[in-house]
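[Automated response] Your request has been received and processed.

Submitted sequence:
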Amino acid sequence: MKGQVLVVSGIDTGIGKTVATGLLARRFAGAGVRTITQKIAQTGCEGVSEDIATHRELMGIPLQEVDLDGATCPYLFRFPASPHLAAALEGREIDFMAIRRSTFKLQLRYDLVLLEGVGGLLVPLTPELLFADYVRDAGYGLVLVSSPRLGSINHTLLSLEVCAARHIPVRGLIYNRFFEADETIAADTRTVIAAALKRLGYDAAPVIDLDASGLAVEAEDLQRLIDPPRR
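Generated structure:
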């Protein structure tokens, strides 16, 4: 039996996807789930993906064989831009089936693959393919990373509506409180986001806080990310 894939995306770039992915992987591995992370593509670096290296550091393990052979990040580009542009500047094209094959290779070896996206959901992987459409077509569940910073309500609700319109199952939301500036705003933003999850039919998706102490996630909510309740 092949392993499950769970996408970790965010409402914007720099929202904390990489830290959230690494910490989730550490928690799942600690719970006995054979877990690996994957980055769909990375721009602005060479060699081994910087985000993959951060995942391994957060997991407390060295780079793995699947990191060194490129399976955990099939596409690396030097220019720090959207993948479609970074690829074009190098005269290359992203083959989404090559990404799918790399993910499948990992699924055969692990129980869970945490696939970190790039930027937000509507980032183009190619001029014709948005990341959200890749997730939809693959049939993956998704964890969305948000925050209390100003603008997050708008960006989060737009992201959730993108998922709802494409029937992408949102399994949970990580509320990155590293960005917290005002407790009143943070508490209200969290309430608005939780209400939006229920309104859009994602009422089983837990809202998980992330702060300086790590992920505040109970074992039950961790399990719900990969085994949501049946309706």
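Summary generated for your ticket: The CA atoms of residues 139 and 162 lie 15 Å apart. The chain has nine helices and eleven strands.
If you did not submit this request, please reply to this message.
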